[in-house]
Amino acid sequence: MNEIIPSSVAALLRGRLLKNEVLANYTSWRTGGPADYVFIPADLEDLSLFLRAIPASLPVTWLGLGSNTLIRDGGLEGVVVITQGALNKIEQINPLEVRAEAGIASAQLARFTARAGSAGLEFMAGIPGTVGGALAMNAGCFGGETWQHVRMVETINRTGEIKLRPLADFTVSYRHVIRPESEWFVAGYFGLQPGDKEKSLAYIRTLLEKRNNSQPTGTANCGSVFRNPPGSFAGRLIEECGLKGKQLGGARVSQKHANFIINESDATSADIENLITSVGATVEEKTSVRLIPEVCIIGRQKT
């Protein structure tokens, strides 16, 4: 660890620091080049210590399940912090409020609250990512959106300072959240309603069955690729343009749901990005609707 942090601090860290780690191992598309460094913290305290120790000039990127991110084949400069499996504490503060750290899978949060006899977060079982990602983009499905249920959040800044922030500190819209600069979500406090355990669990099963019937679950994909334009659906527009099954390299538009792109056969990130660009251009040419990618595309092009 001595290359980017002092040895005196390295001895105190309990997490894992990996060098030149291939990021395809951390994304749901199973693509992406190497990061200079990957840090998997032991917990929030460990993460805070790490951020305080690294050089201020070192870029920091965050990944949960990597389900809404396309990392280019050239990889990422700096350090990538992996929250999934690391920031994994979840606790019921009272019957009407739960705190979940950023690395908790959204589906895990949905099931946890349902089993506790609380209602309101069942829809999150259909979000293929973590709480941190859901907070960062106001993820939603089945008519629900994450920030409809947020009461307050915890963030951490570039120097490792943890802050408790109210809703007023954020500007939230459809699949977009403006947050204080150089701060990242590390936990969310969610409001709940009184519920019935068996009814909530049954509802989750119904939602997941609906998702499995309509989406290409079990394949390497990122979830929805494009935001739904006002008054319409991205998948419907893509399908109406005859793009279901369209393939570039190892990437293909899903036959099951046109707003999903799957890594069908050893796709590169360039294959996927080129297919996203091609689909967007075709839809705009044929319908005059410009589709906005929901997926975050980051990193260096491979040289």
TrEMBL record:
It is an enzyme of class 1 (oxidoreductase). Keywords: Cell cycle, Cell division, Cell shape, Cell wall biogenesis/degradation, Cytoplasm, FAD, Flavoprotein, NADP, Oxidoreductase, Peptidoglycan synthesis. Its main location: cytoplasm. It is found in: Cytoplasm. GO terms for biological process: cell division; cell wall organization; peptidoglycan biosynthetic process; regulation of cell shape. The keyword Cell cycle applies. GO terms for cellular component: cytosol. Pathway: Cell wall biogenesis; peptidoglycan biosynthesis. The active site is at R175, S224, E294. Its cofactor is FAD. InterPro entries: FAD-bd_PCMH, FAD-bd_PCMH-like_sf, FAD-bd_PCMH_sub1, FAD-bd_PCMH_sub2, MurB, MurB_C, MurB_C_sf, Oxid_FAD_bind_N. Coiled coil: none annotated. It catalyses: UDP-N-acetyl-alpha-D-muramate + NADP(+) = UDP-N-acetyl-3-O-(1-carboxyvinyl)-alpha-D-glucosamine + NADPH + H(+). Cell wall formation. This is UDP-N-acetylenolpyruvoylglucosamine reductase. It comes from Aquicella siphonis. The gene is murB.
